[in-house]
Amino acid sequence: MCNETAGIKGSFTETGEKYYRGHVATLSRCQRSTVMAGPSPKPKAEETPMIRLPLPLLRMALLAGLMLAFQGCATPPTDPDALAAFNEANDPLEPMNREIFAFNEGADKYVIKPLAQGYVNVVPAGARRSVRSFLNNLNSPVVLANDIMQGEVQRAGTTLGRAVFNTTLGIGGLFDVATEVGLPYHDEDFGQTLAVWGVGEGPYLVIPILGPSNPRDIVGLVADGFMDPLNWYLENIHLGYLTYVRAAIDGIDKRASVLDALDEIKRTSLDFYATIRSLYRQRRIDEINNGVAPAGTPGGSNMSEDGKDGKPTEQASPPDAAPASDGPAASAPAPDAPAKASPSGGESVSEKNSI
Amino acid sequence: MSSRRLLLPIVVLVLGLASLRPAAADPADDAAKFIDDFGHRAIAALTAPNLSDGELNTRFKSLFEEGFDVAVIARSALGVFWKRATEDERAQYIPLFEDYIVEIYASQFRQYSGEDFKAKSAHAEPDGSVTVISEVVQPDGPVTPLQWTLVPADGGKYKIRDIKIEGVSMINTYRDQFSNEILQHDGKVAGLLESLRRKTASLKASGNG
Q: What is the strand order of the sheet B116-124 is part of?
């Protein structure tokens, strides 16, 4: 479909110069994400006989990496305004993403959401709170490590204090007594840490089952898995499957917490896919900034009369929004349908949601 | 005697200044009061018993127009495409945007179940707007912080420019959606107008339920 993906590995340098700049940015983003999302050295560790590696999410990430290598990019529009909007959406792999999104919607409808509903119906609220507290407490080592890596001393102290209180007084984490003594829970992950370190998010990606993400967050997810001492322990006492069980319960609990909200968003969105993409990005930026608007962005008033200075990005938005001077792709295979980003799978989703 | 006569004006002056000062120096307090008042008035008006769907929408719309800076919000939500929209498209767009918002949010008040609402803090921003943080407290549930951006309006009032919940801004969410819709329609604003028309009609048809 998309001309630039035919030989994403080899053709980049030869044809790159012929594209106008927006095209190149997209292409290089495709390229980069292919590299980032498939952490190729890691699988080799599997061969090491002594210590077994926890591999819960690695396969998923590899799968995503493979799909990136084979799937297409969206065709950037030629019109400058449309191109600016296209770059802001930062979703060059939209056709592929929409297909995975549609798959995820099906999985949600027939498996995940029913499980989440069943969970809410069967398990009383108090017990569900304990499950959440327990899972949060299990996650403490990872949160603590990321707090430290981000140089957040006070938040690291909070996480440590919480783990101590909740593991002891809270009976293994079943009760969140720490919140009541003024140590509320906060989340951290390695994707956020990378962002704090200045790593860009890369293009938007939808991962099978796991949903919205980007290369930075995929790397973060895998790193967090490796960082977690519990995963190593379970793997080495041959109970590695418990890592999956934990992830599944975590996912169902999180899905259960947004049952009504997600229905409502789906009902009212012009395009469910695009809304989720927007929400994911905004939430991540907020999480990266620990809920505090970054300096220079007056809280919430990130708009101007003509809506030019848009979003509270934690990084500069793509600078190459303007097309280069050599006109719309003179020699390169021209983008034939300017702004039509989704040739096939995408439309079915957007159609379905705009009826 | 004369010292006594002097005392009264001094007391009046001091008291007067003291009572004047907070009001004059802190627009943030006014804005917080505005949000508190507006929020409670909205809850009272929109959760009144036996409201018909039509009446609920009418009430919501008039509150929305009163409290929100609708024209600026609509324009910001169109982002870069505002300046390329024709006069005719702009004239169609603003009421369509408003109808869409009314259809989405008015029905939310059907689910109201005693949540309370209060402004917690407020501060002025360098750009002249005021940020108010309020909380929605559910009877036995989590506290959701809401962040309001307001700008001063005529008659000592305020207009709401944006609402943020956990980092998600209303304007940014609509701008992303609308940009996407325009991109899906060959960069044409008319495509968005058609989508808005269709979506609003389908929301209206499906009622509040």
A: B116-124, B130-137, B143-152, B158-165, B168-169
